[in-house]
Every structure is written in C-alpha cells, then in structure tokens.
Amino acid sequence: MEKHDLGISMKDLSEGQPIAGSIDGRELVVLLHGGRVYALDRLCTHESGDLSQGYIDGEELICPLHSGAFYLEGGMANEDTPWVTSLNSFTVEADPESGNLFVYF
Ligand code: FES
C-alpha cells in the first residue's frame, strides 16, 4: 500500500458535506462526519451516481440518483438497498501540522 496526497486539506472539509477527490485516475468521495474523515469510491456501484453529490443520513452516505445507501465505516452497502454493492473504503490520514489529507491504497 502506498500513501497518496489527496490534494485536499482538513480546512476544505465541512461537517457532513461530501466533496470529490481524485488521485491517479481513482475517483474518491471525501467527507467529514463526527469529526472523522472518510474516503470511499466516488461512483455508485449501481449506475455510477456521483456520491460527492449525495448526502449523509445517520452513519450512511446516500446516493443522489436512486438512494442506494453505504455505511461510512467500511463502505458496505446497506442490505435495505440491495441494488447497490459495497464501495471501496480507504484509510485517511491528516498531516498534524498542515492538515493535508493522505489516503492509502
Ligand atoms: S446510481 Fe446510485 S443508487 Fe442508482
């Protein structure tokens, strides 16, 4: 696994507001929830809805197209929305001084 600079800083994030990120052709959605940063695949596993345009409901990220639901922790699909399968989830680390975010994959 390698460490990749997301090009996003903690100061770019607002609680509960997903944003898009991209590294080496890999599209990610990055969000701050409950003081913790999550990074998941950006494109929904159903019909490629852009999850950076989605919203948070409890501990889940909801797809803007057909409401597929994914757990923030681990990216697993919610069994109540069986038309989606799980997303890849990535470990995120913030540089303690700069706040710059890094992911591992
Ligand atoms: S594209 Fe996400 S639920 Fe259909």
Could you characterize what this model shows?
The structure is a single chain. The chain starts with a strand and ends with a strand. The chain has a single domain (about 5-105), classed as 3-layer Sandwich (Rieske Iron-sulfur Protein), CATH 2.102.10. With about 100 residues, it is an all-beta fold. Helix content is about 0%, strand content about 45%. The chain is built from no helices and 9 strands. A 6-stranded antiparallel beta sheet has the order 1-9-8-4-3-2, with no helix packed on it. A 3-stranded antiparallel beta sheet has the order 5-6-7, with no helix packed on it. Bound molecules: FE2/S2 (inorganic) cluster (FES). FE2/S2 (inorganic) cluster binds next to loops.
Keywords:
three-stranded antiparallel sheet, binds FE2/S2 (inorganic) cluster, 105 residues, globular
Write down how many β-strands occur, each being a DSSP E stretch of 2 or more residues. Answer: 9
N- to C-terminal distance: 5 Å
Mean pLDDT: 97
CATH T-level topology: Rieske Iron-sulfur Protein
List the topology elements.
Blueprint: E1 3-9, E2 19-23, E3 26-33, E4 36-41, E5 55-57, E6 60-62, E7 69-71, E8 89-94, E9 100-104
Antiparallel strand pairs: 1-9, 2-3, 3-4, 4-8, 5-6, 6-7, 8-9
